[in-house]
Every structure is written in structure tokens, then in C-alpha cells.
């Protein structure tokens, strides 16, 4: 024991020694205090007065829309397709006499490229552009052009900014910081492009045109503000005492909360661990809002979201799941190996950036690992099991390496210079405990696959792989803007909260799966509330923002579609319906369908007898007694089948509600996928924003899921009649999202008709196609050919599918001819004052 404890202290001492001996890493932060000595400025001061007066400085600023080539080096996580990407190109030109000392200084390029910014700021002054930056400012190498008497030096600077559609663009032209001044006056030309000059401060233009503004300025700062040329300012501010959008948003939130609580069911509240979980989350929710009010207290929100909530979730799952986690020694070795790989990555960073020398790292790491392994061997040698001793030694050595890497990382974090994505990685791994516990609760068991999937999901919540693999993410902490979703800055805590909302939606779907494993779920109010909550979430559309503690926070204010989805789904599920005898299995379903087909045959035969009997009796080919005999025989056969209408085509066909719902959702999704070409592919900076942007792909198929899940409860008695009722509900819901935009007088009637045609065509194709598929599926499950109910040789039978195909073709033509206005309406970019609240 003495040897074991001694070796453990040696290992710990090696880790402490490495941590104490570690040097602070010098980061790329800008130097504090005055500007460093610039030899180029010193050379400028040595020129004769005549040479100084011969210098001429000019600047040309071009504002344009950033192209794909300009954004190639920008990580995808920072690009928000809803915003405007702006490129500001600045070209400085300095005309000098051939004998000016600055010419030789430029040719020697002292300190280039590190001093390029100092050179341009000294001669021309710094040009600042407001707004979130997409990438660091880039500067090209200077270009010198000489003649017999003069030399011109050209400096090119590129700035990328990302602005919302209604943001103003402000340019600040600061005074040169050289002393003495290199030039006394500067000529500046601004080419606004798609922007219009709104304000000038300290500027008297020499040339003022729509596409060009030139002015001369001395050694003092000036600024100008530009507005997008397509943006108009309202003459009057709308009164903010009442807003329909805000009221609808509050009503939607209240209704959604009610359905969420009802979806839990009374049995959920009877369990003590569930009540404790609810109280814990209720206490954590206000703390997560702290960053909205006091940014300095964000640390408390981080602790709650990434420490307290994961521990609460794991504790709740441990109390609710009857079995213990089936982790084995192999799982422990795999997890330890992953930790060692991360630790070695951090130790490599410490060596590359001079936190510790290579010799010190090797010596300290070797001593810590070997001493830890020796301590484990001394502790376990009495067991006499060689495999156990070896495993404990390996685990102890790996733990020592990981602990050393963790200690050096904490030292770097305290010093303020660390790999920027290392923080997000630690937070993502901590947050992963929440989906691990959620998946365990949903499946009622602990699974290794669920752990791996939860970790991957957690990493995707914090950013796409392109963002994780950014070249600067694992080097040094560089000042870079956070990605944005609209006006919401996607900090790690915001991403974590959005991930919780996505996880909550997934849990609702998994709850439908658990409830839908049994037939009584069709009439279960808990399943109905859960289904309505899912539909409402899918149809919530953000249409504005609100101000909370002087912070612009986007909220789901345009909630008309969500409320209509609530009403139409309730209308579908609460209509009059026949008492349906559900088959217990496929054999019973087959007997019911065959009896229904036989009854249909008798009804058709009776109708045919009445149709042809009139002509044959009048012609004398059929006597009255023979007619009565045939009619009585048919009526007797019908009476033997019962007087109640057949309901074989209104049952679950011997399948569970979840099984039927998945089939209906899949078919509806396949039928609606071609319309994704109209709406465009989803965009997003991470998993949650991507899923939210792709909700239009799943909203209409969700109605199909409702069709299959609650099929016996829907209005109608046959697949096609139920599909027509579904089409009415889905069409009303889909069109409700465009009502405010279609009422705008600035949109032409042709564009409105195209939008309505596209929406109507999509809904009719999906619903009619789903009805035809369901009719075929019922016959297929009964082992009967579809032709017995849908005769392809009958014109009447082909009416519904023919209409669907015609509408689909018309929709496709309208989609291909849709103009820019129609695209904006369909994609939700047409934001008007009636749907936006400030």
C-alpha cells in the first residue's frame, strides 16, 4: 500500500509540476498602448517639404454583393442565407515623386505583410465598416507603378460583412495616425452599388451622383451611412400598445403549453421522479434567460445548462429505468482511449504553441503515466488476475495523460489563450448527457448505440463539421464573430437551448411511437394531445421579433398557421364516425374485406337489375315474377350480411397506429419531395437551425402521419373520402400562412394565383395520392387485388387520380415559371409590416 500511494503521489506531482511550469501562450491579441514603431512612417518624415507636398492620396470604396467566390473561405456556420452578405472593396492609391524616400521603403517591404495595416492606416486612415464580420479583413500585396517622374503605390483591402435585410451600412473614414502626416489631404470616392447614401457627417461632396460620391477630406474623421436601395422607411410608427401578431403568439404559446402538459398524461404526474424533474427544469428555465438581461452573469446559465441539467437528466433516467447500464470493461477502455486521443491533441497544442517544451512534456507525461500504472499494479497485485492487473494499469496511465492534458487546458483557459473550439467541445460532451438520458428513457434501456448517437447529435447542435474543422478553430483564440440566426447570436448556450427544444420535439414523436404500439391509442386523449402539439410546433413560423432587455430576440409571432393546424386537426378527429369493429389480426381483416367486397357486389348487382330491368320488362324479355324473384334473392343475400354499412375499409387493417402512421408519413413525404425544388433546399448554421428551416418538408407529411395514426377516427368511411377531408384540413392550414402576404396590394394578381396554384396542387397531389395508396394497401393486406375496388377501365374510377395528375402538371408548370416575387412568398422572405413587430 505504501508503494502504491507513493507512486500515485509521484504521478500527481508530475502533473502539478507540468502545470506550474507551463508558460502563458502568447495569443494574437492586438498590442495594447500606442502603435508600434513603423519604419515606413519614419522614412516619410525624412523627405524634403517639396517632396511631401507632391504626395497625393486617393481612396476608392466599392460596395457590392458578396459572390460565392468571395465566400469560399468563410466557414458555412457563419453564413446565414436569410441575411445580406456585403463585400466592401477599398483601393488606396498613393502618388509619390521618384525621389521620395517612401518609394524605396515600399520596395524593401519592411515587415510586410505584418505591417500592411500600419502602412494603410498611417497614410490613408483606417476605414471601418459596421456590422458583424464574416471573415478577417484581407489585404493584397502593394502594387507599384513607376514612370520617369512619379511612382504610384496601390493597396487593396477587402472587408466582408453580413447584415439583415433592413440594416444600415455605416462607413467611418478615420484620420491618418502618422505623425508627421504623410499626406495633408485625401480624395475619396464611394461607389454605393445597391445602396443609397442616407447620411453624411463632416463631408462636403465634390461630385454627388446616384452611383458615385466623391469628396476631399483632411486629417479628421468623417462618416457616412447608407441604406439598401429596396428598403423604405415608414412615415409613422405603428402603435405598440396592441399587436395581433403578439396576441396570436401568446395564444399559440398558451395552447401549445396546454397540449404539452396534456400529452404527459395523468399517470406521468403520479410518479415522484417525474415531478422532481419538472420542478428542476422549471427552476432552471429562468436562469437560462439570465444572458438576455445581464451578460456578465452568463456563467450561471452555462453552469445550469451544461452541468446541472445534464446531471438532473442522468439522475432521472437512472431512477426511472429498472436496469443498470450494461457497461463493460471494453466500453471503459474505448471511452478511455477516446479521452487519451483528445488529451494527446491538447498536449500537441501545448507543445506547438510553447506552453511547455517537448522535453518537459515527454518527461512529465512519461513520469505521470508510468507512476500511475505502477500504482495501479501495486494496488491490484494481491488479486492475482493478470488480465485485471493489466487493464487497471492501462486505465491508470491513460487517466494520468488525460488529467495532465486537462490541467494544461485549464491553465490555457485561465490565461485567455486556448483553442477556441476546445470550449465548445467540452460543452458539447457535457450537453450530450441530456440526449443520452432522453434516449434511455424513450427505449427503457441503456444502449451503446444511443450513447454514440447522442454524442454525434450534441456535436452537430454546436456546429456543422465545416465549422468544427475550421483551420483557426484548433490553433489560437482569434477574435471572430459568432454565427447568427436572424437577429439571434448563436453562442454555445443559445445553441444548447435550441437543442433542448429540438430534443423535446423528438421526445414527443417517440411518445407517439410508444403510445401507438397498441390499438387503444386511437381513442387515447394523451396521444391526440401529443399529435396536435407536434403539428402546432411544425407550423409555428417566426414572423417578427421583440425587444427584451434592449436585445432584439426573434419570437414565433406569426402563429396563424399553428392555430389553424390545431383547429383543423381537431375538426378531423371530432367528426361523426361509425362504430368500427377493429380486426384483431390480418386473418380477421381479410375476412372483413372479403365480406365487404361481397356486399358491394350484391349492391352493384341490385343496381344493375333495376337499371336493365326497366328495358327488358318493357320489351317482354323479363317477366314480372322473374324480376321479383331475382330482387328478393338479392335483398335476402344483403339482409344476411347485416343492415349496417360495411366498415372494413375504415379500420386499422390489423396494424398498430404507429405502423400505419409511419407508412402514411413516408408516402406523403415522397409525394411532396418534388415541391422541394420550389421552396429550395434547407439552410442552417447547425443541426437545430437546419431542422427548423426544413420544417416545411415535414409539415404536410405530418398531416399524412395523422391520417394513418388516427385513420379510423377521421371523418369519412372510405380511404378516398377520408383523404378528401384531410385535403380540406391541410389546404386550409397551408394557405393560412400566406393570407397576410396575399392580401398585400403591391403583389400582382398573377403572382398570387401562382402561389395559390402551387400550394393547392401540392396539397391535392399528396392527399389524393395518399388516399389511393391507402386503398391499395388495405386490399394488399387483405390479399385481394386492387382492381376489385378501383377498376382502371372505368372513367369514373379514374377521375380522382386524373385530377391529381392534371393539378400536379399545372403546379410543375407554375413552379418553373414562378418569378422572384413568388419565390420570396413561398420561402417566407416576404416580410411585411403586418407580420413584424418591433
Structural class: alpha+beta
The termini sit apart by 70 Å
Helical coverage, percent range: 55-70%
Question: Main β-sheet: number of strands, strand sense, barrel status?
Answer: 8 strands, mixed
Average pLDDT reading: 79
Q: Segments where pLDDT lies below 50 for 5+ residues?
A: 29-36, 543-558, 829-838
- Principal-axes geometry comes out as flat
Q: What fraction of the residues are assigned to beta strands by DSSP?
A: 5-15%
Number of helices: 31
Radius of gyration: 36 Å
Number of strands: 16
Keywords: Membrane, Signal, Transmembrane, Transmembrane helix
Signal peptide: 1-22
Transmembrane segments: 242-265, 277-294, 300-318, 330-352, 358-381, 388-410, 422-442, 449-465, 485-510, 664-682, 694-711, 723-743, 755-776, 797-818
Layout of strands and helices, then pairs:
Blueprint: H1 2-21, H2 39-45, H3 49-53, E1 56-65, E2 84-97, H4 101-108, H5 116-123, E3 127-129, E4 138-139, E5 143-146, E6 150-163, E7 169-173, E8 186-191, E9 195-201, E10 205-208, E11 213-217, E12 222-228, H6 244-264, H7 266-269, H8 272-288, H9 290-293, H10 298-320, H11 329-352, H12 358-380, H13 386-415, H14 420-431, H15 433-443, H16 448-461, H17 465-468, E13 484-485, E14 488-489, H18 492-515, H19 525-538, E15 544-548, E16 551-555, H20 560-573, H21 586-619, H22 624-640, H23 657-672, H24 676-679, H25 687-693, H26 695-709, H27 719-736, H28 739-742, H29 749-781, H30 799-817, H31 820-826
Parallel strand pairs: 1-8
Antiparallel strand pairs: 1-2, 2-6, 3-7, 4-6, 5-6, 7-12, 8-11, 9-12, 10-11, 13-14, 15-16
Helix pairs in contact: 1-12, 1-13, 2-4, 6-19, 8-10, 10-14, 10-15, 11-13, 12-13, 14-16, 15-16, 15-18, 18-19, 18-25, 19-20, 19-26, 20-27, 21-22, 23-26, 23-29, 26-27, 27-29, 29-30, 29-31
Transmembrane segments: 242-265, 277-294, 300-318, 330-352, 358-381, 388-410, 422-442, 449-465, 485-510, 664-682, 694-711, 723-743, 755-776, 797-818
Keywords: Membrane, Signal, Transmembrane, Transmembrane helix
Signal peptide: 1-22
Amino acid at each position: 500500500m505504501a508503494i502504491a500511494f507513493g507512486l500515485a503521489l509521484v504521478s500527481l506531482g508530475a502533473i502539478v509540476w507540468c502545470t506550474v511550469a507551463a508558460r502563458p501562450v502568447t495569443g494574437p491579441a492586438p498590442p495594447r498602448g500606442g502603435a508600434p514603431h513603423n519604419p515606413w512612417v519614419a522614412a516619410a518624415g525624412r523627405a524634403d517639404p517639396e517632396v511631401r507636398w507632391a504626395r497625393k492620396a486617393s481612396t476608392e470604396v466599392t460596395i457590392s454583393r458578396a459572390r460565392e467566390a468571395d465566400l469560399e473561405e468563410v466557414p458555412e456556420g457563419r453564413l446565414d442565407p436569410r441575411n445580406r452578405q456585403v463585400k466592401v472593396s477599398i483601393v488606396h492609391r498613393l502618388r509619390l515623386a521618384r525621389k521620395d524616400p517612401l518609394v524605396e521603403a515600399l520596395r524593401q517591404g519592411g515587415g510586410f505583410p505584418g505591417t500592411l495595416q500600419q502602412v494603410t492606416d498611417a497614410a490613408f486612415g483606417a476605414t471601418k465598416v459596421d456590422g458583424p464580420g464574416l471573415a478577417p479583413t484581407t489585404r493584397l500585396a502593394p502594387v507599384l507603378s513607376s514612370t520617369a517622374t512619379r511612382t504610384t503605390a496601390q493597396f487593396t483591402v477587402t472587408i466582408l460583412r453580413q447584415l439583415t435585410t433592413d440594416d444600415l451600412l455605416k462607413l467611418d473614414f478615420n484620420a491618418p495616425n502618422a505623425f508627421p502626416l504623410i499626406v495633408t489631404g485625401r480624395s475619396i470616392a464611394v461607389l454605393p452599388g445597391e445602396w443609397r447614401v442616407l447620411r453624411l457627417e463632416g463631408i462636403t461632396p465634390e461630385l454627388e451622383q446616384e452611383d458615385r460620391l466623391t469628396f476631399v477630406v483632411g486629417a479628421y474623421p468623417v462618416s457616412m451611412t447608407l441604406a439598401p436601395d429596396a428598403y423604405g422607411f415608414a412615415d409613422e410608427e405603428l402603435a405598440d400598445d396592441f399587436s395581433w401578431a403578439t396576441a396570436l403568439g401568446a395564444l399559440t404559446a398558451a395552447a401549445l403549453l396546454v397540449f404539452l402538459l396534456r400529452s404527459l398524461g395523468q399517470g406521468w404526474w403520479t410518479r415522484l421522479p417525474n415531478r422532481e424533474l419538472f420542478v428542476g427544469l422549471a427552476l432552471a428555465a429562468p436562469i437560462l434567460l439570465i444572458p438576455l438581461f445581464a451578460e456578465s452573469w452568463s456563467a450561471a446559465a452555462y453552469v445550469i445548462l451544461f452541468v446541472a441539467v445534464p446531471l438532473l437528466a442522468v439522475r432521472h433516467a437512472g431512477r426511472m429505468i429498472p436496469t443498470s447500464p450494461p457497461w463493460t470493461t471494453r466500453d471503459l477502455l474505448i471511452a478511455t482511449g477516446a479521452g487519451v486521443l483528445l488529451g494527446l491533441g491538447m498536449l500537441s497544442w501545448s507543445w506547438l504553441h510553447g506552453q511547455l517544451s517537448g522535453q518537459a512534456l515527454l518527461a512529465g507525461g512519461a513520469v505521470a503515466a508510468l507512476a500511475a500504472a505502477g500504482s495501479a499494479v501495486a494496488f491490484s497485485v494481491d488479486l492475482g488476475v493478470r488480465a485485471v492487473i493489466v487493464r487497471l494499469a492501462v486505465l491508470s496511465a491513460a487517466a494520468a495523460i488525460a488529467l495532465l492534458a486537462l490541467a494544461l487546458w485549464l491553465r490555457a483557459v485561465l490565461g485567455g489563450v486556448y483553442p477556441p473550439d476546445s470550449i465548445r467541445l467540452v460543452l458539447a460532451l457535457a450537453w450530450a448527457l441530456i440526449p443520452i438520458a432522453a434516449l434511455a428513457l424513450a427505449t427503457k434501456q441503456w444502449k451503446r448505440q444511443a450513447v454514440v448517437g447522442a454524442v454525434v447529435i450534441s456535436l452537430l447542435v454546436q456546429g456543422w463539421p465545416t465549422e468544427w474543422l475550421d483551420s483557426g478553430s484548433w490553433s489560437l483564440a482569434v477574435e471572430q464573430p459568432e454565427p447568427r440566426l436572424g437577429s439571434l447570436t448563436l453562442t454555445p448556450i443559445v445553441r444548447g437551448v435550441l437543442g433542448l427544444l429540438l430534443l423535446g420535439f423528438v421526445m414527443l414523436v417517440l411518445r407517439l411511437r410508444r403510445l401507438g404500439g397498441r390499438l387503444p391509442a386511437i381513442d387515447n386523449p394523451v396521444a391526440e394531445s401529443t399529435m396536435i402539439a407536434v403539428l402546432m410546433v411544425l407550423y409555428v413560423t417566426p414572423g417578427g421579433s421583440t425587444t427584451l432587455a434592449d436585445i432584439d430576440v426573434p419570437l414565433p409571432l406569426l402563429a396563424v398557421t399553428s392555430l389553424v393546424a390545431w383547429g383543423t386537426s381537431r375538426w378531423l378527429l371530432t367528426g361523426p364516425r361509425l362504430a368500427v369493429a377493429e380486426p384483431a389480426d390480418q386473418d380477421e381483416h381479410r375476412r372483413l374485406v372479403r365480406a365487404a367486397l361481397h356486399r358491394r357486389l350484391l349492391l352493384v348487382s341490385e343496381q344493375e337489375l333495376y337499371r336493365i330491368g326497366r328495358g327488358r320488362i318493357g320489351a317482354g324479355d323479363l317477366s314480372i315474377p322473374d324480376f321479383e324473384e331475382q330482387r328478393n334473392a338479392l335483398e335476402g343475400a344483403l339482409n344476411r350480411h347485416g343492415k349496417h354499412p360495411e366498415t372494413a375499409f375504415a379500420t386499422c387493417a390489423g396494424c398498430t397506429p404507429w405502423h400505419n402512421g409511419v407508412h402514411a408519413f413516408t408516402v406523403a413525404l415522397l409525394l411532396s419531395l418534388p415541391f422541394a425544388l420550389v421552396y429550395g433546399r434547407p439552410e442552417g448554421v447547425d443541426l437545430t437551425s437546419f431542422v427548423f428551416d426544413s420544417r416545411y418538408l415535414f409539415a404536410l407529411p405530418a398531416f399524412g402521419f395523422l391520417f394513418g395514426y388516427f385513420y379510423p377516427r377521421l371523418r369519412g368511411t372510405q380511404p378516398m373520402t377520408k383523404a378528401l377531408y384531410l385535403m380540406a384540413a391541410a389546404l386550409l392550414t397551408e394557405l393560412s400562412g400566406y393570407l397576410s402576404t396575399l392580401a398585400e396590394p403591391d403583389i400582382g394578381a398573377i403572382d398570387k394565383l401562382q402561389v395559390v396554384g402551387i400550394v393547392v396542387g401540392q396539397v391535392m397531389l399528396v392527399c389524393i395520392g395518399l388516399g389511393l395508396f391507402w386503398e391499395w394497401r388495405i386490399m394488399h393486406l387483405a390479399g385481394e387485388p386492387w382492381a376489385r375496388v378501383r377498376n382502371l377501365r372505368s372513367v369514373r374510377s379514374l377521375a380522382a387520380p386524373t385530377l391529381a395528375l392534371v393539378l400536379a402538371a399545372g403546379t410543375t408548370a407554375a413552379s418553373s415559371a414562378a418569378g422572384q416575387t413568388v419565390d420570396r412568398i413561398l420561402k417566407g422572405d416576404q416580410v411585411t409590416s403586418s407580420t413584424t413587430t418591433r
